[in-house]
Amino acid sequence: MRSRWGIILGLMLLAVFGAAGVARAQDAGKDAAPGAASSAPQNAAPDAAQSCDVPAYLLTSDSPLPKVADAVKGAHVLNVLVVGSRSSTIPMQEASAYPARLQAYLKEKLPSVTVNVSVELLAKKTAEEAASALVKLVEDKKATLVVWQTGTVDAMRSIDPDDFRSAVDDGVAALQTAGADVILMNLQYSPRTDSMVSAPPYLDNMRVVAQQHDVPLFDRFAIMQQWNDSGEFDFFSAAHGLDLVKRVHDCLGRALSKFVIDAAHLDAAQQN
Amino acid sequence: MTSIADRIAGPALAGEADASARVALPIGLAPTISAPPVSERELRLDLFRGMALWLIFIDHLPPSFLTWLTIRNYGFSDATEIFIFISGYTAAFVYGRAMRDVGFVVATARILRRVWQIYVAHVFLFTIFLAEISYVATSFENPLYSEEMGILDFLKQPDVTIVQALLLRFRPVNMDVLPLYIVLMFFLPAILWLMKWRPDVTLALSALLYAATWQFDLYLSAYPNGVWAFNPFAWQLLFVFGAWCAQGGARRMTRILSSPITMWISIAYLLAAFYVTLTWYVPQMNNMLPRGLEQWMYPIDKTDLDVLRFAHFLALAALTVRFLPKDWAGLKSPWLRPLILCGQHSLEIFCLGVFLAFAGHFVLAEVSGGPALHAVLHAVVTISGIVIMCAAAWLFSWYKHSADKSARARSTIGNADLAGGSL
I need a surface site. Which of A150, A190, B143, B379 has the fewest CB within 10 A? Predict the structure, then answer.
C-alpha cells in the first residue's frame, strides 16, 4: 500500500509547512507593530523597567566569601577588583558596564561601607596568560574580592580544556594565597556564535575549579540564557544598539551584587 | 501487504543475503546469536545508527525542550559513542569480508576510496560553514558580543584557514566527527589485517594505545591552537572494539552478555550515572554528591573518551542486546523504517544533518520574535530537519535500488552503504 505511506508523508509535510506559515504570520504581525513588545523597556530608565529576574539558585552559593564579610563588618571598606576580557566592559561606556553597576548597587545595598570597584582588562588574554598577572594586580589594588571573568578567549581559541582548567586552578590558588576572596565568572551566553565557539567544556571546567577551591561561581552563561528564554532579552537578534548592552550590563551588575551579598552573608551584617 | 517501505527493503535484503550466503559469517551482538546462519542484515545496527544521527542533529541545534530527548541528558555517554561503535562494527564487517574474498590490496583500495568520499564530504560541509559564518560576520552587529565576534577573525586570512581546513586541522564546532572518521577509516586496513591474525591482540593493542593516550597525553593539534575535539588516539578504542565485536567477539561474549550479573551491574551503573547527571540539571541537588567522589570523577572528558563514558556506553549496549532481540518484530514495522533508512545511509544523512543544523541555526537567528514563537519555531525546525533527513534517506534508497541499475548489478560486496555503511 504505497498510497498510505504517501499520505502519511504528505500530512507530515503539510503539518510542517502549516506550522511554518503560522510562525511566519505571527512574525509578520510582530514586525508590523514593533512598538508593542520591545520599545517599552528602552524608553524607561534602565534600572526601573528591567526586572532582570534571575532564579534564586543562580544567585546563591554555598561557597563563602569570608574576607569580604570581615572587611565589611570590620573596616567598612570593600575593595573589589574585576579582572576580565572585553566582555567585562562596554567600549567608551565604562560607566555603564557591569563593574561600575556593581559598585553602584553595592553602595546602595551597603550604605555604611566604602565600596571601590576597579577593573583590569586583559583583552585577548587566555586564562593562562591572565593567571600570571593576577597576583601582582591584587597586591597593587589591595583587593579583598577578585571577580575573575574568564573562559571566553580560551573558548574562542579552543585551548585544550585540560590546560584551561589547570590555568584557572593556578590562578585561583594564587589569588587565595595572596589573601583575596575569589568569584569566578564564566562566559556570556552568545547564541549567535554557538555554531562557532564551543562553550560547554569551558563552562564545565570552571565549575570544577570552583568546586575544588570552594569559591563561588557567578554563572553568567546560565543567567543570560535564562533571560533569553524568559523573553527578558533577545540575544539572537542581529542588530542591537548600545541600549541593549547597557541594560544587560546593568542587570548583570545587579545580579552580581546580590550574589556577593548572598555569598558573604552580608544581609545579616547589615541588619546588625 | 507490501508497503513501500518493504519494497525498498527488498533488494537490500536480497543483496545482503547473496553476500552472506557466500561467506557464512555470523553477525550480531545478541545473546540470541546462536541462531542458524544469519541471512539478513542486522537491522538493529541500522536502527541505532539512525537514532544516533537524529540525536546528533538535535544536539547540534541550540538547546530546546527536544534536547531533553537526547541520551546525553541521562548519562555520561551520548550519540557519538553509539555512532563510532556501530561504524567500527559495520566497517569491519563489510571490509573484513572483502579482505577475505578479494584480498588485502583490493579491500584496502576500497577502504581508501571510502576515506576519500568522507574527506570530500567534510570539505563540502566546510564550504557551507564558511558561507554561513561569512554571512554572520557581515550582518551581525551587536556590541554586546564584540569580543565573541573575534572568532571570525580567521576570515581575514582565508588562505591559511582553508589550507588548514583541508589538512583537517581547522575544524569548526560540530564538524569534528568526520575528521575523526577519516583518521579511523584510514587505519582500518591495518586494524583488519591485525584482526585477521589475532583479534584479541588487536583489541589489547588498542586498549594499550588508549591507556598510553591518558598516560602520556597524546593528542593531535588543531589550528589555530588547541587540539582535536575527539582525540583519535582515545576514540579508536570504541572503533576497534566495534570491529572486534564484528569479527566474532560479540559471539564469544554471548555468555557474559546473557548473564544476570552483567545485567544488574549495567542497570546499577546506568542508574548511578543518571543520578549524577540529575545533579547537573537540578540545582537543588548540587550538593548531593560526596565531594571526594566529585573530585575523583570530574571532569568527565569527552575529548579523550573518559573511561566513565566508555563504561556507560558498554552498559547501554549490554542492556540493548539483552532486551532487544535481533528478530524483534518491531524492526520490520513501518514506524521504525525512517530510522533504519537513515542508519543505512549514514554518511549522506550525517552530512545532511550537519548542514541542516547550520541552516537551523540560521533560521532561528534570522526570525526574531518572542520566546513563545521561538519555541514553536525551534520545534518546527527540529521536526522538519528530521523529516528532511528521512525523506533524503528514502530517496537514496530509491536511487540505489531502483534508479541506479548498474549499482545494483555491481553486487554488494564492498559497498559500504548496503551493508550498513562504514561512515
Answer: B379
